């Protein structure tokens, strides 16, 4: 028997929240010769390969914990789909009306028909909401572990998947930016978007990883005895080509309160997931900016978009589901003993559980003249508006920094101003991606007319008589005339208000969390940019990743754990950018010691594998080579590993993608 690990699970009772210490064993599998961890089934947690009486006792403990979790959810006002009041969550197969049937060819499908040939529903929904049956293909059109697109009607394509002998069908257009999912990565029971890494369950269409927010339409499926595959779709989902998971509304009789500090992507997903999970108590979201959560990553690419086109949801959405959005309000103090949040407008909010996702502040270097007019950072919508207003076709623009903010701004604005100069300290930009990729973009930016000043830093900024910047000085003593300066010089964590709260804040301002995003204080969770959280791609070493995909995922995981469902962090960081029409995809995490490049760098069609000292692939970058990064992210999310030998074995470096559909137990992880 291997040594026991201890998991701390927060259990909610009607009187108080107690900390239950669960002993769970990681049991060595005689079949696979490796460890398995306990996995989440549809209704209970279970162990694989239980061998001894002691192990069976641990199994019993887990089942007991599951029952306590359900009691906790009930006490929170979270109801099963069989309950009637308040509105119950109706997700997954029930939402899609999936029924398992088998035709004469032994193929299971979603859908069922009565003896008269009509469709049968076991839910209360009116079948008049659904289209007539449409034949889209034959089961012989798909091989096992294959997905294909077919036309459902003249305006709609459907993604049909065959796995484990079962046919399922979901929408083919990613709900984020509309990528065609049939060109994505098919894993075990889910498909990953090739562009930005969003994941959708192939049986239900439910979104499981981000950056999208909405789920996909899910089609009823029937396979006839002659192999014809027929589908029906819910008309409302078909019109929008997306689907919002069912959400409960506020029940004022439920006195439980959850406060979310932050108005970014992590906060937005958290409050939605709470309602989707059936939490009907009070939700308060404190938004520092005077607007609702919005798509911040567009700011460095398109400066003049109105806020209404950037916001994830409008005010009517939050009002409908009883989510209180306090705009322009900051948290100034958290009292974890009294469980109260003090705010900048003098208001105090009592909480039972707290989620902190306050994100970052743009860093301004401590330099003479840095506070002159027309010297900007890029963090908020107001920042983007101010930069846009300051630019004219005669502007001489200086962008400072060699990472994503400065690089994206320079690329977006070079055609709109007179000159763009990019100043950065290294040999080449995008240092994270290594010399070959960095030098490639250095040359590309010069070809596009951007003046590249490497090995350079600002030392001072000078202004005119009106107090506006008109010149900058570099470390070599040279000076550049300019009208606008955009600083992409890093960021700091927004956690100063947590001093004396009892929440442990690291010296850099980040907050350590466990696998469930709980901090050192029970009932207090942290997520998004500020969370120094376990990262699956780094063997669950902690790290801070400032990107939208992981922030949204953190919001979901925090909400699940706050509502009594034990959910470990398992997402793989997935980054994306677009400069001069070159789509950059990057997934993984960690410092590399070697790289393998496959493809044509000069043609911007290549894959870069980043390896550690042991030859393990820790991250992958691609340009013009979708869906390889999505495939790598999906592989790592399954607990599998990619090694140099997989890439160098044979002529085709993509042979490893076959591992995506191989069933293999997840690698256990401790944190």
UniProtKB/TrEMBL annotation:
<keyword id="KW-0479">Metal-binding</keyword>
<dbReference type="InterPro" id="IPR036922">
    <property type="entry name" value="Rieske_2Fe-2S_sf"/>
</dbReference>
<keyword id="KW-0560">Oxidoreductase</keyword>
<dbReference type="GO" id="GO:0051537">
    <property type="term" value="F:2 iron, 2 sulfur cluster binding"/>
</dbReference>
<feature type="domain" description="Rieske">
    <location>
        <begin position="134"/>
        <end position="230"/>
    </location>
</feature>
<dbReference type="InterPro" id="IPR016156">
    <property type="entry name" value="FAD/NAD-linked_Rdtase_dimer_sf"/>
</dbReference>
<protein>
    <submittedName>
        <fullName>Apoptosis-inducing factor 3</fullName>
    </submittedName>
</protein>
<dbReference type="InterPro" id="IPR017941">
    <property type="entry name" value="Rieske_2Fe-2S"/>
</dbReference>
<keyword id="KW-0285">Flavoprotein</keyword>
<dbReference type="Pfam" id="PF00355">
    <property type="entry name" value="Rieske"/>
</dbReference>
<dbReference type="Pfam" id="PF07992">
    <property type="entry name" value="Pyr_redox_2"/>
</dbReference>
<feature type="region of interest" description="Disordered">
    <location>
        <begin position="99"/>
        <end position="126"/>
    </location>
</feature>
<keyword id="KW-0001">2Fe-2S</keyword>
<comment type="similarity">
    <text>Belongs to the FAD-dependent oxidoreductase family.</text>
</comment>
<dbReference type="InterPro" id="IPR036188">
    <property type="entry name" value="FAD/NAD-bd_sf"/>
</dbReference>
<dbReference type="InterPro" id="IPR023753">
    <property type="entry name" value="FAD/NAD-binding_dom"/>
</dbReference>
<keyword id="KW-0411">Iron-sulfur</keyword>
<dbReference type="GO" id="GO:0005737">
    <property type="term" value="C:cytoplasm"/>
</dbReference>
<dbReference type="InterPro" id="IPR050446">
    <property type="entry name" value="FAD-oxidoreductase/Apoptosis"/>
</dbReference>
<keyword id="KW-0274">FAD</keyword>
<dbReference type="GO" id="GO:0046872">
    <property type="term" value="F:metal ion binding"/>
</dbReference>
<dbReference type="GO" id="GO:0016651">
    <property type="term" value="F:oxidoreductase activity, acting on NAD(P)H"/>
</dbReference>
<keyword id="KW-0408">Iron</keyword>
